[in-house]
Amino acid sequence: MKNLFVHHVYFWLKNPGSQEDLAQLLDGLNKLAKVETIQKHHIGVPAATNRDVIERTYAASWLALFDNAADQDSYQVDPIHLKFVEECSHLWSKVVVFDSVDAS
Amino acid sequence: MKNLFVHHVYFWLKNPGSQEDLAQLLDGLNKLAKVETIQKHHIGVPAATNRDVIERTYAASWLALFDNAADQDSYQVDPIHLKFVEECSHLWSKVVVFDSVDAS
């Protein structure tokens, strides 16, 4: 996977125990996946792995791969993305984003 | 990308300013990528994006995709992985791992 822009977002819910809120967030992410510049995506929840170095307190993860940085810029202002934020941002208490590009 | 096990690791260096240490870590990750159960991988550094929600203090990121959780378990004890930890763990001060599986 060369020349990728890797956008990985982790969400913590305001109501961590709410399966309904989680389902609503996951539904929103499934709609978000329709943004055209996204090459591949993965909607996740914490795996069963559990070691000291593993962060597993988040509720959902959103991995989106883009061909380049410009496509990710475009995604940020895509109407589908703006609608996702509008409809779902009340669900989360914290979001952490890691954006990575090729190391070499 | 269905049925994936997504393993994303972020490394902070003991000597954050050392290009030599970063190069050594990236070299180690390139060797680590040879583990046979890894389906796809990406070796990254922070992108230029810079918003409040973006964590960009890490030095390098390691994304490895596996077909299933068992393949990731196998990777953890693969001799290539053990050698990577042996040769490179002195370089980092912090490692954070996010393991994610399909949400539905």
Automatic annotation (TrEMBL), chains A, B:
SMART domains the record matches: Dabb
Coiled-coil positions: none
InterPro entries: Dabb, Dimeric_a/b-barrel
Species assigned in the record: Danxiaibacter flavus
Residues annotated as transmembrane: none
Protein name, per record: Dabb family protein
Domain Stress-response A/B barrel: 5-100
